[in-house]
Amino acid sequence: DSFDILGDGVKELLVGRDDGMIEIYNFESADDPVLRHDYALSESISSIQGGCVGKDGYDEILAATYSGWLTGLTTEPVHREGGSGEELKLSQEMQNKISSLRNELEQLQIKVLQEREKYQQSSHSSTAVSSVPAFSVNDKFTLNKDDASYSLILEVQTAIDNVLVQSDVPLDLLDVDKNSAVVSFSSCDSE
């Protein structure tokens, strides 16, 4: 997207990447864009948009991720400083918002406990049937021309415990900065 998130009168380029990076590029010179800010999310970004959403006067970047999360980055200051010995006073609107969020959180916690109890009861019954939930896999296998390697990116809406890669030809697995996986090799039977 293009949006004036920095408030300088010139639109910046907002980029959401498959690796989870949000980048803001500014066009200070006419030739090349300059990276001004970046922020890393834990999953790929499927959509990005700039605008004023949450509070008048403070622009934001909204990004939708692969699993459906909506993440917002705002220009509103997060911290307020008070003088020495001064107590921070919240407006009535902010106090109402905090109270509403606390109530919603308590209701969600109760609902989770009820559903967990219901699941426990149904899983111990004699008529319980176990099944593997269906989920979609977002996968990409792309060639990196710079070092003649391929990048395999797997993304699912649940935790990935193990990935088995089987090949008819010998493979060298390269580690990357964002990778938290532990790689183990085993030789394959030729049959």
UniProtKB/TrEMBL annotation:
GO cellular component labels: axoneme; BBSome; ciliary basal body; membrane; neuron projection
Coiled coil location: 91-118
Keyword field contains Ligase: no
Keywords linked to the UniProt accession: Coiled coil
Any GO BP: cilium assembly
Keyword Coiled coil: yes
BBS7 beta-propeller domain residues: 1-75
UniProt-listed InterPro entries: BBS7_GAE_dom, Beta-prop_BBS7
Domain BBS7 GAE: 133-190
Name of the protein described by the UniProt record: BBS7 protein
Gene this chain is encoded by: Bbs7
